[in-house]
Design brief:
Order of helices and strands: EEHEHEHEHEHHEHEHEHEHEHEHEHEHH
Strand content: 15-25%
Distance between the termini: 35 Å
Bound molecules: 1,3-dihydroxyacetonephosphate, iron/sulfur cluster
Largest sheet: 4 strands, parallel
Oligomer: single chain
Number of strands: 14
Shape: globular
Number of helices: 15
CATH superfamily of the largest domain: NadA-like
Radius of gyration: 20 Å
Amino acid sequence: MAVINMEDARKNVSRVGFLDIELDPTLDLFLEIERLKKEKNAIILAHYYQEPDIQDVADYIGDSLGLAQQAEKTQADIIVFAGVHFMAETAKILNPSKKVLLPDLNAGCSLADSAPADLFRAFKEQHPNHIVISYINCTADIKALSDIICTSSNAEKIIESVPVDQPIIFAPDKNLGAYLNKKTGRNMVLWNGACMVHEIFSLEKITKLKVRHPEAKLIAHPECEDPLLRIADFIGSTTQLLKYTQQDSAKEFIVATETGILHQMQKSSPEKTFIPAPPDNSCACNDCPHMKLNTLEKLYLCMEYETPEITMDEALRIASKKPIDRMLEISKAAGLGG
Ligand code: 13P
Ligand code: SF4
């Protein structure tokens, strides 16, 4: 039985987030989480940007497409989503009857925040004959205003499924949108949003790093800005980047995405060296502050107390499910995902 020691451990405790509960530091959280999984028939889905401890207790670790696909097919009663709000919300959209928990409800996303629904609705009205393809990193309100959702691993296929003469609005990531315009030869109208983590890399520092590590391959997420993508050896979603490091013969990689992914890269290729791409500031970190709000302690508490829970208005859920279903159908037909 789990022990939340409120009385005895006053001097040696850590206060954990939303519940303002003092957690007994002698508790083996790994064992407790395993116990709770079994007792509650719960599954933990984690994104690669989560802290290593969370990745190590997860039942499935993946990119946004893989996570949505797992959420769609799980038989568990409770989905514990170790990721950010739009990911857990997507799981709820696909599973209205299941309980979906997010360890910290404040785990948002700067990219999703860059597209407020009222402004986007007005933008859409200015482009009446366009269909909307939205990156999954957006709110349910934006999804409900979209025709098809995509992720970084299926975006090209999704765009190719649309007739070439059909004008498209792409939202909310302008960097991913510009990259896709180049790749597909389309001229999609781009919403002016971006991810704070992927815009922080310093081209100058990366160039210097490449001089010191001439054999290293530079691999980058397509949310990065164009000048960086131009010098990258490989561009892909988190899962695609991980696979590339497993299959490529290079021994060193400079990784231009959130640092959480390095845990799986290092685990599956211990003989290789992974260097986080340096950011354009004095702090040597490119962690996503939203992703990193989740901790093992919060994960344990949210499983124990079954809160915070994602809840949704049913009309919004139904409207936002349509473009996600379309994405999942196209991905399945193309054999994409995990
Ligand atoms: P993917 O894992 O789908 O590549 O997305 C990266 C990301 O920024 C998630 O927030
Ligand atoms: Fe959002 Fe960027 Fe964080 Fe992903 S890494 S959750 S896109 S802010």
